[in-house]
Specification:
This protein has one domain: Aspartate Aminotransferase, domain 1 (Alpha-Beta Complex). By secondary structure, it is of the alpha+beta class. 44% of the residues lie in helices and 20% in strands. It has helices at 9-15, 18-34, 83-87, 89-102, 123-131, 135-148; strands at residues 40-44, 47-52, 66-73, 78-82, 107-108, 112-115.
Length: 149
C-alpha cells in the first residue's frame, strides 16, 4: 500500500491486512518508544511519519514539516525512512556494520531501509538510531546539508 490516502495513523493501520498491520504496528511501537521529545507522529506523503512540526521549525525547503522517520507498507515489503541516517554518514556506517555483524542483507537506499519481515529488521539498532538524534541535533544536520547546496 504505497501512498495511502488515510488521514490518520489509525485509519492507515485499519486499511492494512492483519498480518501487514502487525508488522507496521510493531515498527511503529519501536519508533514511538525510542523517539526523542519534540517529534510528532502524523500522516505525511501517504505514510506514517515522525516530523518536526512547522510551529517548531518552519524554514523547510518545501514548506512541509521536517521529516525525521517515516514508515510505509509497500506492495511487496516495508520501508522505513531514516532521514537521520541519510544526513549523517556515521549513523549510516553504524547501520551497515550492524547488519554485517548480524549476517543480514542490508537493503538501504539514501534513507530508505527496505525489509520484508520483522526478522529482516535489526530492531535494537533501529531503536538506538531513532533515539540518537534530538530535534535540535536534527535541525542542525538539516541546516548543514542545506548550506552545502
Amino acid at each position: 500500500m504505497a501512498g495511502s490516502a488515510a488521514k490518520t495513523v489509525a485509519a492507515y493501520l485499519a486499511d492494512l491486512a492483519p498480518e501487514r498491520r502487525a508488522v507496521v504496528a510493531a515498527v511503529r511501537d519501536l519508533v514511538n518508544a525510542q523517539l526523542p521529545a519534540g517529534y510528532v507522529e502524523e500522516m505525511a506523503y501517504g505514510m506514517i511519519a515522525w516530523n518536526i512540526p512547522l510551529a517548531r521549525y518552519p524554514k523547510t525547503y518545501n514548506g512541509q514539516p521536517l521529516c525525521y522517520v517515516a514508515l510505509a507498507a509497500q506492495k511487496n515489503a516495508y520501508s522505513l525512512y531514516l532521514n537521520g541516517v541519510y544526513a549523517d554518514s556515521e549513523r549510516e556506517q553504524r547501520l551497515r556494520e550492524a547488519y554485517a555483524r548480524a549476517g543480514l542483507k542490508l537493503d538501504l537506499g539514501k534513507s530508505c531501509l527496505r525489509f520484508k519481515s520483522l526478522d529482516g529488521l535489526l530492531q535494537d539498532e533501529i531503536g538506538a538510531i531513532v533515539a540518537s538524534t534530538s530535534v535540535e541535533a536534527y535541525i542542525a544536520l538539516y541546516e548543514a546539508s542545506r548550506h552545502k547546496a
